[in-house]
């Protein structure tokens, strides 16, 4: 996407991978993109779970530890609520409550983010640790990068850490 | 060609996200009618459209209380 040089920029670090915090991250991201800002979402650590191609629990990775971590964490459908998770029931209850109040669900927000051309970047280091390959992630992941790239790209951006 | 979008059942940020995506699909010179609620959407949708260089041709209350009809030209 060609963007004018003077466009306002927002960079969001998606670290937590909690359901509610991911809703907040995608809400800010889509809101910013829809109001003409250039948005980059940088996914690291637990945040990577939201980018996995398989949205359920899959033992991704090579080592036993990585497989165990990836299986237990799961994908977008398994993100836990940061408070009162109740063994994974609460995100489903929360989704129902959101629907009842016409608030976009997390998958809808993710879809809107892709439609708006938000740049999705995955953290190389976290991918190494968790043994997640680029092929394990959704095709919208534009880049796999480190902190130096993130900082360079975010030089004149607001940085939000979630 | 005139397009129409009802965002009265949407909440932030989908109100202006849907308008933005609809406008992106349209050709230059085409018009979009947006039915929206007073409050946050009425404050933000026309403003964000103007900021992006789209023309807000009209912004009038409808017969239904609390709803406005916006006409935007791309």
Task: Please give a structural write-up.
The complex is a heterodimer of chains A (162) and B (74). Chain A has 162 residues and is of the alpha/beta class. The radius of gyration of chain A is 16 Å and the shape is globular. The two termini of chain A are 26 Å apart. Chain A is built from six helices and five strands. Chain B is α+β, with helices and mostly antiparallel strands and 74 residues long. Chain B has helices spanning 14-25, 40-51, and strands at 2-6, 31-37, 55-61, 67-73. A four-stranded mixed β-sheet of chain B has the order 1-2-4-3, with helices on one face. Chain B is globular, with a radius of gyration of 11 Å. Chain B starts with a strand and ends with a strand. Chain A binds chain B through residues 27, 30-31, 33-36, 101-104, 108, 112, 115-116, and chain B through 9-14, 16-17, 19-21, 44, 48, 51-52.
Q: Report the uncertain regions of chain B.
A: none
Q: Given the helix and strand composition of chain B, which structural class is it? A: alpha+beta
Rounded average pLDDT of chain B: 94
Helix content of chain B: 25-40%
Shape of chain A: globular
Coarse morphology of chain B: globular
Computed Rg of chain B: 11 Å
Q: Any low-confidence stretches of chain A, pLDDT <50, length ≥5?
A: none
Spatial strand order of the main sheet of chain A: 4-3-2-1-5
- Bin the helical content of chain A: 25-40%
End-to-end distance of chain A:
26 Å
Compute the number of strand runs of chain B.
4
Order of strands, widest sheet of chain B: 1-2-4-3
